[in-house]
Amino acid sequence: MSGPVSSVDTPPEQREPDSPAPPCAEVFDDREAKVGNITVRRALPWRGRRTVGAWCFADHMGPEQVDDDNGGLDIGPHPHIGLHTVTWLVDGALLHRDSLGSEQEIRPGQLNLMTAGHGVVHAEEMVRTYRGALQGVQLWVAQPESTRDGAAAFEHHAELPAADLDNGSAVVLIGSLAGATSNARRDTEIVGAEITVRRGGAVVPIRADFEHALVVIDGEVVVGESVVRPGQLGYVGMGRDELPLSSQDGARLLLLGGVPFGDPIVMWWNFVARTKEEMAQARTQWATEDERFGSVDTALARIPAPPAL
C-alpha cells in the first residue's frame, strides 16, 4: 500500500528541511488518495510539513471489509529509491514480495521493513484466503546521505517489544520508547510506536530533541488544546520530555518522531532523492527496465512510471 506521492502532496523540487515547531500541537487534515483499489487518508507529506524526523510519508488505509466482492489491496511491482518502507497492520493480512526474493506475509502486531537504498522493486498482495476487516498504515522513512545509495534489504519482525505507560501501553515498531527498544533497522535517530491510551488519558515519555507527530487510528486524543481524530495529523514540536494525551473514551494511535532531518529532500512518485536529476534518471531506468531495479515474482502487472517530471 505504498505511495505514490504526487505534486498535490508536495511539489518535486529541492527545498530546505522544515523548521521544527515549538512544543505545541498543530492539526492538519489528511488528504484522500487512491492506492490500487483502496482509498487511503494521506497524513504526510504536506506542502508545509514534508518530514517529522526522517519520517516522510504516512498513509492510513481502511478500515475496509474484504469479501468476495471487494478483493482488497493489490499493488503491482513498483520501484523505490532512498527510503525505508514500514508496513503496520491493525487488521487483515498482506503478502510482500520484492526483487530480493523476499516473500513474507504480515499480520497485525508484526512489522515489515524494506530498505530501498540505490533501488528495489516490490509488490503488495492480498492474502487470497483472507476475509474480514483490512486496516493499516504505510510509512516511509527518508534515508540519510550515508545509506541512501547502499544495498537494498528486507526484514520481518514477528514480535515487537511492548512497554507500559501511565494509563496506557506502547508497542515499539522502530527505535526506543519507555525503556523498550525495537531491533528493526533505523539509519537515523527516530521512533515509531503504536500507543494505546485508556479512558481518561495517558502520559507518553518522549525525547526533547525529537519532533513528533500523531496519526490517530481509533478514538480521539487532546494534546494541549488541540483535538486530533482519525483523518488528521497532530504535529508536536520539540522541547518536551513527556506528552500528555487526554481521551474521553480511549484511543489508539501511531507516535512518529525523530531528530529533525537535516538534508533537503525531493519526493516524487515512489522516490526520495536530493535532486530532480536523480529522480529523472530513476524514472528512465524503471521505464526502460534497467537492471538497477530487478524484478518481482508476482502475477500482478508492473506499474508504469507517470509522465516525466
Describe the structure.
By secondary structure, the protein is mostly beta strands. The protein has a single domain (26-260, 280-287), classed as Jelly Rolls (Sandwich), CATH 2.60.120.10. Helices cover 4% and strands 47% of the residues. The strands form 7 sheets. Strands 1-22-19-24-17-14-13 form a 7-stranded antiparallel sheet, with no helix packed on it. The mean pLDDT is 91.
Binned strand content = over 45%
Which overall shape is indicated by the principal axes computed on the Cα atoms? Answer: globular
Measured between the Cα atoms of the first and last residue, the distance is 23 Å
What is the averaged pLDDT score? 91
Regarding quaternary structure, what we see is single chain
Sheet/helix structural class = mainly beta
CATH 2nd-level architecture? Sandwich
CATH top-level class: Mainly Beta
Give the neighbour order of strands across the main sheet: 1-22-19-24-17-14-13
How many strands appear in the DSSP assignment? 26
CA radius of gyration: 18 Å
